Amino acid sequence: MRTAIVRFPGSNCDQDCFQALAALGYDPHYLWHKEDSVSGFDFIVLPGGFSYGDYLRCGAIARFSPVMKSVIEFAKSGGLVMGICNGFQILCESGLLPGALMRNRSLHFVCKHVGVRVEHYTTAWTQNASTGMVLNIPIAHGEGRYVADAETVEQLRRERRILLKYCDADGATSDAGNPNGSVENIAGICNAAGNVFGLMPHPERACDPLLGSIDGRVIFESLLASRKVQKVA
Amino acid sequence: MNTKSDPAITPELVASHGITPEEYERIIGILGRAPNYTELGIFSVMWSEHCSYKNSKPELRKFPTTGPRVLVRAGEENAGVIDIGDGWAVAFKMESHNHPSAIEPFQGAATGVGGIIRDIFTMGARPVFSLNSLRFGSITGEGSGVKNNRRLFAGVVAGIAHYGNCIGIPTIGGEVYFDPSYEGNPLVNVFCLGVLRHEQIARGAAKGVGNPVFYVGAETGRDGLAGAAFASRDLTEESKEDRPAVQVGDPFREKLLLEACLELLATDAVAGIQDMGAAGLTCSTCETASRGGTGVEIELTKVPQRETGMTPYETMLSESQERMLIIVKKGHEEEVTRIFEKWDLPYAEVGVVNDDGMMRVRNHGEIVAEIPASKLADDAPIYHREYQAPVQTGETVPDYAHDEPAAGLPALLGHPSIASKRWVWQQYDHMVRAGTAVLPGSDAAVFLIREAGKILAATSDCNSLYCTLNPREGARIAVAEAARNLACSGAVPLAVTDNLNFGNPHRPENFWQLRESVEGLAEACREFDVPVTGGNVSLYNQSPAGAVDPTPTVGMVGIIEDAAHITRQHFRQADDAILLIGGFGHELGGSHYFLTMHGKKAGQPPHMDFAKEKAVHEALRSLIRMKSVFSAHDLSEGGLAVALAECCFSPNGTLGATISIPGDAHPVEALYNESQGRILVTVKSENASALAGLCEWRGVKAQRIGTVTRDGVISIAHRGHNYEWDAGKLQAVWENAIPSVMESAE
Question: Same topology for domains B66-201+420-566 and B568-746, yes or no?
Fold first, then answer.
């Protein structure tokens, strides 16, 4: 899976993504934000960080980076795109995903392991999981509160596009288990076609047992598995 | 050479620059004439304590700075460099930003972080993690002082988080203490470590006559003007007016600068590189020239400026952040252009290396300052300050004979200095770079540097209460405690960086504390065979209320040879045996028990027995290498009772413990004494006596004192009594101590 990890000025989690994906059998490459083509890539990752220093709004400037034109075209024609943390913010700013990420309810940046519950296993991103499975994956953000109007949230729910929800260790969602105040405890969503996935938690930080959890692998291995299935078909 | 608009050089102007009449004569001697206004400003910052260490240099020479692993020594460059094996090395250092943080906590702390990070990547190393050691006045109780301390605490933590998180370098450990002596004088000591190959070590020397000098990074403005001089005097009510002397940081700019500099260093284009920190353009220019044995000439109109009408004085003294000076090999200028345009960073060719040893500054071609570089950089006067031991260092030891022994534990756990610091470190991204193997909350941070395949441990320590009562012993203990914390994580110590925080050195009692602390640090570093690779001195931590408690902070780095040796402090499961290595101790002097329960800084600190301490660490490491240790936690503030409770507060669920303490010491002594060289270890029950026996065979006291339980009760039997606490309730006190006062303040 030839993967482009886009580097914006201020991206910080690019190296972490590269190493995690390489270890899992992906073929990762860095793609500088000034490049104007994504041809030759099967999968694009927008990694976490503080692109453009979070000036104006998180991701507001990155979405105008030269490379984003090709990323958006790629996404609209069904290409696989994953936005992690700041990457999720960029996907929302560029209209590839609905809603927005706002300041955490606590007004503080928060870095900790959280539980996220897989809501639907029927996507390329989650097919190795099962509905209700709890993954232990870290978050680290100051603006991770997902907001969208009631209609949008209802549409996401109805179309089974809410893929991950914050939960406690037993998989129950609650206010206490919601680290940032996201509506409906939403941690990750996908677009209507299912090829664009945005999530606030950092799965690339949960791939090495040394760091405490390897639940991030579930997501990356799901994607690889889904591609293999497609190839066979 | 004074332009018409410059003020005349009067004795008052000289004095207001912090220059004594004798120093002024010295300047005349160096120049062969009187300085002009710009030159006066230049000398004022270069010869401030902050830049020149003129009051502390004679003391700093006492540190051991050499060793087989030392690749770049203390004082040679911006940071020391240590070999970690297989051609890899680490550059690390600790620095302070105390005065700016007292006036403007957010930016003061943020720019402190920015500064130490630059010191690391200017050495050619990629910064991989940070720590910090923070001290504030009391945050509990009433009064405007308390409110101010909370404001400073919140601001400093937010500032460190803002800068560290944005630049993508994890902040993975440190310490936070609260004590009235830091009222109005917070201490903000920040540490950073970076990794590099031996051959990537970059130097800050202006080598190669004729090489162009480039300025890269953010534009220069008027911020932070004369910050170095500000840091070299006492804080007073009027200090608020020094607010402009606090620099403003932009971590995004620095992230770009970091990436661009590392990319540039990977080419063959760089002859020398230095960051512009304290004293900005002035310091970087004369220091690189001095190290290169050359001269540097710059033209100020070429310096990127973000404000109009800046005078030479302002441009030379500005401490605008996120700027570097790069001496480029002639012919390689295109590399700079290519890389800095890629990263959209300002850059400009501002000067050239010459061979006359002068720092020459021109403005529109006219010379506005001309000073022999090495005399400016290296020939600041050196002062041997008077020192005088105070008549008494502490209060009389309180009478604890009738204290209720069980009351101490919740009180100690609820003291913000001992309580959980989660409120702090959860604001730091401590997981970026996917290398943090041991999260904050354990004895030492442990980090896997993936590029190098090496696992490092790091800690920051100083018990300033001990240092107040006996600075020499307290400093010895600071080093020993750091080494002990590293041992508890499974590491062998490699090297030390120090941050000395003291009051006004013109007061003999303060200088005595500095001298004594340095003696203690130096002796301990020799004992533990850890060279000092560099550090920082912060003096004048003094307000009208008095000086801060002497605080020689120790930052220590160690290495863990095998991932299987990584050890954490929390108990893992019920039924494990609890061993106490190092004996039961008895010393209450300087204890947090006296401080918390009787409000006294009393007695003498516990005795440091280096031989015993080293033997204890070695014994623990040998058990860890046998892979038989489930957890290890050293005893420090609050003694055995506090350490035991802390072990039970596992992130995976509160455990309990049942132990007994033999002998007939007074229960307060038994529970809370702070005798050194002691560690709580858990092992498999059936191995307990064999492992204790192994320690004894090494000459180290060790015995099983009890068992980890699942019932959530901490039970300590002593002299026929059972002291019991509900571990869950203790944990709640410990966890809520800081959030309960900070969240209501917001």
Answer: no
Tens of pLDDT, residue by residue over A168-178, are 999 999 999 99
Q: Which option is the CATH number for B66-201+420-566: 3.10.20.30, 3.10.450.50, 3.50.50.60, 3.30.1330.10?
A: 3.30.1330.10
Return the pLDDT at B2.
62
The pLDDT, as a whole number, for residue B143 is 84
What is the number of residues in chain B? 746
H or E segment and range at residue B413? helix B408-413
Best mutation target, B426, B449, B454, B652, to test chain A (most A CBs within 10 A): B426
For the annotated catalytic residues of B, the residue numbers are 50, 97
The CA distance from B9 to A151, in Å, is 72
**Considering its fold, how many domains does chain A have in total?**
1
Using the structure block, give the residue that is written with the tokens 């955490």: A104
Cβ atoms of B126 and B194 within 8 Å: the answer is: yes
Full 3-state SS string of B546-612: EECCCEEEEEEEEEECCHHHCCCCCCCCCCCEEEEECCCCCCCCCCHHHHHHHCCCECCCCCCCHHH
Predicted pLDDT of residue B5 = 74
* Predicted ipTM > 0.90: yes
Say which residues have a Cβ less than 8 Å from residue B162's Cβ, sequence separation at least 6. B106, B110, B251
Contact A9 B428 (CB under 8 A): no
Q: What is the CATH number of the domain that holds A108?
A: 3.40.50.880
* Fold designation for B1-62+203-380: Phosphoribosyl-aminoimidazole Synthetase; Chain A, domain 2 (3.90.650)
Rg over alpha carbons for chain B, rounded to the nearest Å, is 26
CB contact under 8 A, A19 and B434: yes
pLDDT given for residue B51 in this prediction: 87
User: How is residue B608 written in tokens?
Assistant: 């440091």
A123-A125-A131 Cα angle (round to 5): 60
Name the nearest CA neighbour of B241 among B253, B225, B254, B256. B225
What domain range is A108 assigned to? Answer: 2-232
For B4, residues 6+ apart whose C-beta sits below 8 A from its C-beta are: none
- How high is the pLDDT of residue B277? 85
Six-digit token string for B548: 């801060």
Task: Report the C-alpha gap between B681 and B659 in whole angstroms.
Answer: 13
Angle B318-B322-B326 (CA atoms, 0-180°, nearest 5)?
90
Specify whether the CB–CB gap between B743 and B151 falls below 8 A: no
B698/B690 Cα distance (integer angstroms): 13
B207 CB burial (10 A radius; 0-12, 13-18, 19+): middle
Candidates B165, B343, B432; nearest CB to A9: B343
pLDDT of residue B4: 62
Q: Does domain B568-746 have CATH number 3.90.650.10?
A: yes
3-state secondary structure of A26: coil
- pLDDT tens for B657-696 read 999 999 999 999 999 999 999 999 999 999 999 999 999 9
| SS3 of A108-122 | CCEEEEEEEEECCCC
C-alpha closest to that of B554 among B482, B447, B468, B458: B482
DSSP symbol at A66: H
Residue ranges covered by each domain of chain B:
1-62+203-380, 66-201+420-566, 568-746
Q: Which residues of A touch B429 (CB under 8 A)?
A: 109, 111, 140
> Do B199 and B167 contact (CB within 8 A), yes or no?
no
pLDDT of residue B237: 66
Q: Which of A12, A51, A180 to mutate to test the interface with B (most CBs of B within 10 A)?
A: A12
Q: For chain B, list residues with pLDDT below 70.
A: 1-4, 226-230, 237-245, 744-746
Q: In B675-734, which ranges are E strands?
A: 679-683, 702-709, 713-718, 721-726
Residue with structure tokens 């590189």?
B273
